[in-house]
Amino acid sequence: MALTDDQIADIGENIIKNLKTVYDPEIPVDIYELGLIYDVQISDQGAVKVIMTLTTPNCPVAESLPAEVREKVTEVEGVTEVDLELTFEPAWNKDMMSEEARFELGMF
């Protein structure tokens, strides 16, 4: 049975909430506010596609961070599968951080 728009919106909100519990170990800000999550797409069947990046291709958590993101998305009720795509296009830069992240890091 297909999910309603409201159910998809709820799943999206819960995914973001869970992603905000994942932190880059070198920067004391969650990966969502850092701008490492480029896109989250949710189908009406509950399949989720996450497009994300890392601060650098040589990031020390290049293997563990995507696995943690997949786990956090999988935990959300209504998610049936997770397709995680790691990309470096466009390359991450500090301009992708939210105002909250910049404030947290004293960049104002």
Quick recap of the structure?
By secondary structure, the protein is of the alpha+beta class.
Structure description:
The protein has a single domain, classed as Fe-S cluster assembly (FSCA) (GMP Synthetase, Chain A, domain 3, 2-Layer Sandwich). The termini are far apart. It has helices at 5-19, 31-34, 64-74, 99-104; strands spanning 37-42, 47-52, 81-86. The chain has a three-stranded mixed sheet. The model has no long low-confidence stretch (mean pLDDT 94). It is α+β, with helices and mostly antiparallel strands and 108 residues long.
Uncertain segments are: none
Neighbour order of strands in the largest sheet: 1-2-3
Shape: globular
Measured as a percent range, the helix fraction is 25-40%
The CATH level-2 architecture is identified as: 2-Layer Sandwich
| Number of DSSP-assigned strands | 3
Radius of gyration: 14 Å
